[in-house]
Amino acid sequence: MTKRVFLFLLVLTLLLSACRSPQATSVPVSTTETPATATPNPTITIVDALNRTVSLPTAPQRIVLAGRALFMIADAVYLFPGAADRIVGMGNTNQGPDNFIQLIDPRYAEKQNLEIDAGAEQVAALHPDLVILKSYLADSVGAPIEALGIPVIYVDFETPEQYMRDLAILGKVFGNEARAVEVAAFFQKKMDEVAQKVKDAPRPRVLVLYYNNKDGKVAFSVPPLNWIQTTLVNMAGGAPVWADANPGKGWTQVTLEQIAAWDADQIFVIAYFKPAPDVVAELKTDPNWAAIRAVKEGHLYPFAADLYSWDQPDTRWILGLTWLAGKIHPERFPDLDMGAEVLTFYQTLYGLDATFVEQNIVPTFKGVLP
């Protein structure tokens, strides 16, 4: 063999050796480690109530609920099992003396309680990776929080249609879209049941009044046409007599003369900070109210409530719809058992057993049962 051929073979051998993986030094990959080629966790993309697309790098673990009327959001959030463990702070979830979230969350005391008007700095101090707000707070509360680089998701939870959409939003937030579908189906089923029973019924004239005695001065107001109180009357088979009054964006105060002039067949009184049955009892002893036809005929009712009133865009509005339809059209709901409806509601939506409901919810009933 010539020297030139020998050198050629040597170089070829070295090249082949360099291209071959050294099997003696290979180490098996642990099953607990993520291979470098594995697909990373996908970004969570959510379209919120303001039609904004919000991208979260991973599932949020430190969530803050802020703003006014917070119990309406909190009660919807707690529909999702395990959601409570991700809440690190929230505003006041009371309405009057009652606090449903404190009642059902054993770790409620560990969460930071925010002031009603908590600003961006107070929220940021909790190091949240997501804040959930009502959409009307986007400019006043949300914008300063977002300016700090904290993601914000906006919801409404004001109408039945918004409920379905916002449940889907929370399903994305908590990685449980199946639960959102399940809850939405519960609401839809109850709405369909009521609609079927009242679809061809005559529509009595119904008046809903909000009682307020701020500063010791009693006043009554009617809701706007697009608020859930008006929607509930329509869905329950009634005709809201205040529709022609064209009330504004909030509660519109009305006089006793106007109440009498509307001549409603049925009047329902809402009171958030005083038991509505007490208000109705007082009105029945008032000579001015005694002259109103609905009162004379025994059709002045307190709007039903447990810890919170059932007329509001809280999860309990579906109880309010069923109860109201039964009051407006008792002939269409001869077997309505609101005690059973309440038990089904709390068992299905919050996983509370019959003993818990009997001991903690039933004693708070106001105007629920005949």
Please sum up the structure shown:
The protein has 370 residues and is α/β, with parallel strands linked by helices.
Classification by helices and strands: alpha/beta
Count of structural domains: 2
What share of residues is helical? Answer: 25-40%
Assembly type: single chain
Low-pLDDT segments, ≥5 res:
1-39
Radius of gyration: 29 Å
State which percent range the strand residues make up: 5-15%
Order of helices and strands: HEEEHEHEHEHEHHEEHEEHEHHHEHHH
For the termini, the CA-CA separation is 113 Å
The general outline is globular
Q: Could you describe the largest sheet, including whether it forms a barrel?
A: 6 strands, mixed
The CATH superfamily of the largest domain is: Nitrogenase molybdenum iron protein domain
The CATH topology of the largest domain corresponds to Rossmann fold
* The level-1 CATH class of the largest domain: Alpha Beta
**Total beta-strand segments:** 13
> What is the arithmetic mean of pLDDT?
89
Describe this structure in words.
The protein has 370 residues and is α/β, with parallel strands linked by helices. It is 39% helix and 14% strand. The protein folds into 2 domains: 44-175, 3-Layer(aba) Sandwich (Rossmann fold), CATH 3.40.50; 200-364, Rossmann fold, CATH 3.40.50.1980. It has helices spanning 3-19, 70-77, 100-104, 120-124, 138-147, 160-173, 177-198, 228-235, 256-262, 276-284, 287-290, 293-296, 317-328, 338-350, 354-361, and strands at residues 44-47, 53-56, 63-65, 87-90, 112-113, 130-134, 152-155, 205-212, 219-222, 239-240, 252-254, 266-270, 300-302. Strands 8, 9, 10, 11, 12 and 13 form a 6-stranded mixed sheet that branches. It has a 5-stranded parallel sheet with strand order 5-4-3-6-7, with helices on both faces. The protein has a two-stranded antiparallel sheet with strand order 1-2. The radius of gyration is 29 Å and the shape is globular.
